[in-house]
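Please fill in the sequence for the structure shown.

STRUCTURE ENCODING:
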């Protein structure tokens, strides 16, 4: 079972913005090759930090308004939310260590 939640307009605010833990959101699309490369990294991070971090993925093709709301212009875009605010962001397929370097200060 995946530790990464599927997000959509119906559950985004309650799941992500009202989370009691920092929440990493992977904005992706099925046709995006770099998104497929980042997905296993997000899964690993979700498992590694399950006690301190929640993770989810949002399909921008299914939810373009949410992508626009958070100014997602390129995918994959990973945004870390804490206390309902975006506190860190990564654009493009980045190595796991680089992504962790952006997330860990907020945990």
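FILLED IN BY: designer on duty
SEQUENCE:
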């Amino acid at each position: 079972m995946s530790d990464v939640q599927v997000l959509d307009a119906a559950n985004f605010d309650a799941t992500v913005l009202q989370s009691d833990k920092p929440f990493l959101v992977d904005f992706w699309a099925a046709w995006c090759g770099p998104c497929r490369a980042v997905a296993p990294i997000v899964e690993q991070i979700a498992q590694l930090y399950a006690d301190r971090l929640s993770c989810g993925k949002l399909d921008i093709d299914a939810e373009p308004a949410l992508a626009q709301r958070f100014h997602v212009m390129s995918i994959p875009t990973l945004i870390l939310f804490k206390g309902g605010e975006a506190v860190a962001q990564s654009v493009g397929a980045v190595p796991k260590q680089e992504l962790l370097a952006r997330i860990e200060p907020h945990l």
